[in-house]
Write a structure and sequence with these properties.
The complex is a heterodimer of chains A (658) and B (315). Chain A is mainly β and 658 residues long. Chain A has one domain: Maltoporin, Chain A (Beta Barrel). Chain A has four helices and 32 strands. In chain A, a hairpin with a 4-residue loop joins strand 20 and strand 21. The radius of gyration of chain A is 24 Å and the shape is globular. The two termini of chain A are 31 Å apart. The N terminus of chain A is likely disordered. Chain B has two domains: 181 residues, no CATH class; 124 residues, Sandwich (Immunoglobulin-like), CATH 2.60.40. Chain B contains two helices and 23 strands. Classes of the chains: A mainly beta (658), B mainly beta (315). The interface between A and B is medium-sized, with 27 and 24 residues.
Amino acid sequence: MLGALLLFTSGVFPVDSIDNGSHTIDEVVVVSSQSEGRKRSAKGVAASIDEHLSELSHVNLVRRGSYAWEPVVNNMQTERVSTTIDGMKIFYACTDKMDPVTSYVESSNLQIILLNSGLNGNPQSTGNIGGSLDLKLRRAGFGGESFHLNADAGYETNGHLQVYGADASTSSDRFYMNGGVFYRHADNYKEGGGKEVRFSQFQKVNVFGNVGVKLTKQDVVEGTFIFDRANNVGYPALNMDVKKAEAFIGSVAYKRLFDHPVLNTWETKLYYNHITHVMDDTKRPDVEIHMDMPGKSWTSGLYSLLSASKGVHEAQLNYDLYYNRLFADMTMYPGGAAPMYMITWPDVGTLNTGVALTDAISLPHQQSLHLSAKVAVQWQKLNSEEGYHALRVFFPGMKDAYQQTTGRVGASYAWSPAHWDFSLGTGWGSRAPTVTEAYGYYLNNTFDQYDYIGNPRLKNESAVELNGAAKWHPHPRFNIGVDANAFFFSNYIIGEFEDRLSPMTVDAEGVKVYGNIDHATIVNTSLKTEWQALPWLSWHTSLNYSIGKDAEGDPLPLILPLAYASSLHCQLSTINCRLTVRGNARQVRYGKKYGETETPAYAIVNLNADNTFSILKTRMTLRAGVENLFDKAYSTYSDWCNIPQKGRNVYVNLNVSL
Amino acid sequence: MYMKKVLGLFLVLVAGLVSCNSNDDENGITIDGITITDDVDCCSAEEALQVYRFLQGVSIIPELSVEVDGKYNVYAYSKTGSLHTGYNELYFVATKKISGNYVKNFEVKNITPLMYMTQMNMSHSTPVSAGVESFNDGYLAVKRGWVSFLMNSSENGSWTISYDVDVLGSTGGTGNVNITVDALPDGQEWLKTFKVGDEVYVLSLVNPTDWQTGTNAIQAYVSKKSQPITTPYALATERFTIEIDPRMPDMGNHTSPDNVALTRQEDGSYVGRVNLTMTGLWRIHLTVKDAEGNIVAGGDDLKDGLSSLYWDVTI
């Protein structure tokens, strides 16, 4: 992992040099010409970020519509997961989580998505109990092709999804520049059986650019920007849609490449991003009270990462600092009467700074040790007087400023004797409550039909993680592995029913206030096999099972039931094809106490193929496939309010590269 | 607004007449239209400035001005310069005509509002404050009182009001002056009545427009209908407790926690605490209990479980 970051940030093609030996890391290649043997979506670049994310082990996605799915790592949602874009902090702007930050990038922006499972996060991550995702931007890099052009077009029958993208790059030893545009449009999709899922449309446009200049052999300056805008996004699982979700993401970085026995690189990046999110209920029928719910998030920060190696050590020292501002309000318009106004995120300013240290130590006899630690301090201030006074109704003694200190330490050990890979890891980490958990104000949750109020008196949540993995590969053509991790939480933060309070949302069940429950446990296990039966045919299977329970032993909500996948891959000349069966068993343990309903079992079959060929020096990749071949009507445990998944979907897309 | 301008013009005129700058004071305080002298009856420069600044925030009710003995002017103000149904705070200042400066101490008495009801050919009064008092230690020269109008002026009836003054031994009064009492806009009902036996009580909610989202002090007066009814209604001497249940009718009767019932204070007002979770229309359902804790009004829990006695406040 260390090497990966290092090489990547030097602008050299990094993808294949990532050490994938440790079980704590996974990755999915989004765009790369050198990705043999790497995970990637069957749809290639035309796949959405969400589809790319779903390729990662340990990752599941909460769907509220056909756009902007929320990544869940080790059965933990956004609160317990760090998401960074090339190390940059970015925070979503919607109080209803309609815009996980992964929705503000596009496939063509990215080279690779790195996942660090559990507490062993990337250096910039904070609060990553469940894991950390780092979306690595796709830079042309120095010394590449002098000119490269890339175009994508895709179509999917279900929902008439159209995808168009084009980008170009130029590169020399001293300079590179790349940029492009991407556009997606989808109408309502149909569930299995052909019924239309209303309000599941979306439209998105994305523009990006990267530039790098090598000032001297050792000094590099890089800049990047992304502008992303989604319009008219439907959320069938929610009561409203999105009129506009817009982000500007920009950074400037200076990198020093050392020619030194110990120091390798030193990168310092300054960044800024701004998100505007505007919800819209005007297209919904039977809206009792029309409301406006805009949200804003902006973040400015920096990190400075020094990489060094000496002997068996490869170390990284990172300092980071960011300031984030979150504001959201809500205006309701009852017919005829005065509008009702409230501030739902009281313009919270968070200043966070931290220092992280990691060391990867190579030991004799195929052993290695990875150590990481981070400590971070944050100060929060409620800048909206009105929002602060409103919260004081519920917490009369609260202040308008808070300070928290969080940290994490992790250690993992790996040993790879002949035909075996073993690893063991442990860690401890804590996180501060999120703005929603600490200061959110009457945020309606359609999952359990409660209004949620934040609690400024929350304690930090912490967890101890234990993990282990074993893989047996007696033959290059066969391997089998098991992997398990367990998180033992203290002061687990979750909404608790408060019968003293009256809901704001008409038809809501009641009000929940975030609280710390004494302890909770999440355990994830998986089994994987791979068998190259014939030179052109391989068989892959996986089995996953997770358990989550609260202090009383009752199931936590949104925990993966028994899930399986089995696929046959065949490779005939330049044609790859894959037949996949995947499904979930019935969700036996579900968080009834937390408003979750049981999800029945399902299984679906997907079929896909791709072929890469060249015509007149132009490299083309044609991909086609059928998802949900038998048009099964189903929804998964992570489909918000059990909204149905897509029915049969035939897709075809073409990538042209010259 | 218009009256403010008139007052400003008036003050400028006074300044012109006395042809004397008001900056002849050691602190260098200058106030338009006011000459600071060492007149012991009048405000010092600092006091006059405080009063002047306070008056910038309220508006004059021109019809309620009165000249006393040719030496003094008494002016009456309200927040907006107009009057409306329910509780209205009134402020009075007296000035010496010769200097324009505010008289430190004076008396306003016998505030007497009267409604003449055309169809029934009868008159009645309405709740008023026991007297007027200095606004507070900072505004000694500003006197404050209140009138709570039972109804607005309309073709069914019209209001007059009168009051008497005593400025440094000179007495005078307005006589009955016609005034207009505006109706409150929709979503505002700040005055309610209830009956206990043969007695009629009036609940006047004080200045709810000052409320904001969050925790607010809620203040009210309980007045008792007089006999004869043309006498201004004085504060009831009984000791009630007024329990409140604030609700948002447009939000499925959403409510807020930790509201505190209004109880009688030493000055005769009732004070409690109301929590408002957002802006909009709040219906504050009331349950009035007597000193023994018996419900005497409201608290009747109609089919929605809420009292039929309520104030409406839109913030």
